[in-house]
Amino acid sequence: MNLNLIAPERKLETGPLRVLIADDEPPLRQMLQTGLRLAGYDVVLARDGVEAMAQADQDIFCALIDWQMPGADGFEVLRFLKAKRPELPVIIISATGQLSDAVQAIKAGAAEFISKPLDLPRLLALLQALPRMGPTPLAPPALPVFAPVLELKDIVLGDSLAIRQLRKNIRKLAPLNIPILLLGESGVGKGLVARLLHQHSTWAAQPFITKSSSALLADLADSEQSVPQPGHSLGARQRSLSRFEMAQGGTLFLDEISQLPLALQPRLVNVLEELICQRLGRSNSPSTNIRLITATDADLVEKVARQEFRADLFFRINAIKLVIPPLRQRREDILPLAESMLAQWAPTALAPPLKLASATRGLLTAYAWPGNVRELQNVLLRATVFCDGDKLQPEHFPAEFHQKSVARPPTETAFDGEPQVGGLPFEEVERMCLRQTLAICDGNKAATARRLGWTEKTVYNRLSHFGMR
User: Fold this and answer.
1) Helices 26-38 and 372-386: crossing angle, nearest 10°?
2) For 370, which of 241, 393, 408, 461 is 20 to 30 Å away at the CA?
3) Where are the domains of the chain?
């Protein structure tokens, strides 16, 4: 989304923070390099694990390491970096997303384990929060968790009924200290909504702590181990459990909650219900006053019915449910989102952002977007990298993108299946129909009128009524 919201607020006297990116996929390296530099970071690239280890002597703020690389894999690079520079935060990225790999990485000292395709806003947020996440203080001092408050309409972009209702719900729920469950497909922006709920609350100045299912799994697995004998070091167990306490007075966001194994769910129930982090070696554990937000793309009701998710945990996290709609159900928001992203990625404040060619606008609107806003951002960022002119053309997008969208005829069937309009006011259905038909007709009002069976004057009147340009 808006990269400026989660970009570093300042550059150090010695220059911008430097991030090492190690991945054997050139497109991903280039995309990450572009995104991080636009957000104000310096970038060092490595094509494999051997090159990554050779870069360890540089003044690096953080390392992004692919789990599967030639030469030396991510686990080997992680162990090397942590042995050479124990204070260096290392984020592991993986195409497989296996929980066993995640647990292995977290226990070996990784700050976080995230799966591909990467969510750039979430990655930037992790980079900003890293000084808080590390087991030892880092220099420079911890970065602020979030930038100053902006209007929700400038952050949660779009003018569809669903997005307008989402902004309204965020305003209502932000001041309430009750558990909130965010539901939505992968890539819709659940992490962003969680941050906005925190940012617009009365405790916005307090910590916002994010834990993925992989990091949570490692913490809870550690907490299940037996108490060590007197004189033995508590080590990573005390350190990992203290991450719960880092959210003291603020917000704890548990992402991908449905992926937590059933065997470890009772431990989380105890932590949440008692609001106490049991720290080994202390008789009196301090109470934690946290605001809990969880997120999932799974049907938890179905998982409870299949006994794959504990009912008591479900009811503990489901005080308020907030559904974030997929992008294909609000196609009128696609072009405003794309244009906003391109504006944020302009090289300088005076340089004009890249524009969308007319054919590209139709391409974006017709596509199904199974990866939602995250996919839109990644596709646009990749197209930006390969664009030499001032407009993004269809040829700047990957072949599979064309096969799923351009190959379809520019008719009503370009919108996958039957539109999801049940329960919407008729005026909203009319608005969606007008915007989508305009996109099919490349903005031609006369052609739009012919397709809809209206007069051209009616098209202009309805555009004025809906406040559409």
Assistant:
1) 100
2) 393
3) 3-133, 152-224+234-323, 328-466
Residue range 152-224+234-323 in CATH 3.30.70.250: no
CATH architecture group of domain 328-466: Orthogonal Bundle (1.10)
Rg of the chain's alpha carbons, rounded to an integer?
24
Question: Domain spanning 3-133 has what CATH number?
Answer: 3.40.50.2300
390 burial via Cβ count (<10 Å: 0-12, 13-18, 19+): exposed
SS3 content of the chain, % helix, strand, coil (to 5): 45, 10, 40
Residue 178 clears pLDDT 60, i.e. is over it: yes
DSSP code string of 245-268: HTTTTSEEEE-SGGGS-GGGHHHH
- Closest alpha carbon to 146 in 195, 91, 182: 195
Longest dimension (CA), the chain: 85
CA distance 115 to 94: 5
Spatial distance between the Cα atoms of 438 and 227, rounded to a whole number of angstroms = 66
Exposure of 35 in the CB half-sphere (CA atoms within 13 A): 29
Residue 417, pLDDT score: 41
Q: What is the pLDDT of residues 246-277, one digit of tens each?
A: 667 788 888 889 888 888 888 888 877 765 44
- pTM for the predicted model, two decimal places: 0.59
Domains 3-133 and 152-224+234-323 share a fold: yes
Q: Is 132 helix (H, G, I), strand (E, B) or coil?
A: helix
pLDDT tens column, 76-96: 999 899 888 888 889 999 877
108-118 b/e with 16+ CB inside 10 Å = b? bbbbbbbbbbb
Is residue 315 within 8 A of residue 176, CB to CB? The reply is no
Q: Residue 43 class from Cβ within 10 Å (0-12 exposed, 13-18 middle, 19+ buried)?
A: middle
Length of the chain: 469
Instruction: Please give the DSSP secondary-structure letter assigned to residue 152.
Output: G
Sheet holding 18-22, edge to edge: 42-46, 18-22, 62-66, 90-94, 112-115
pLDDT of 288 strictly over 80: no
DSSP-assigned letter for residue 394: G
For residues 120-132, one letter each, b for 16 or more C-beta atoms within 10 angstroms of the residue's C-beta and e for the rest, the string is bbbbbbbbbbbbb
HSE-CB of 465 using CA atoms within 13 angstroms: 12
Nearest alpha-carbon partner for 133 in 114, 148, 120: 114
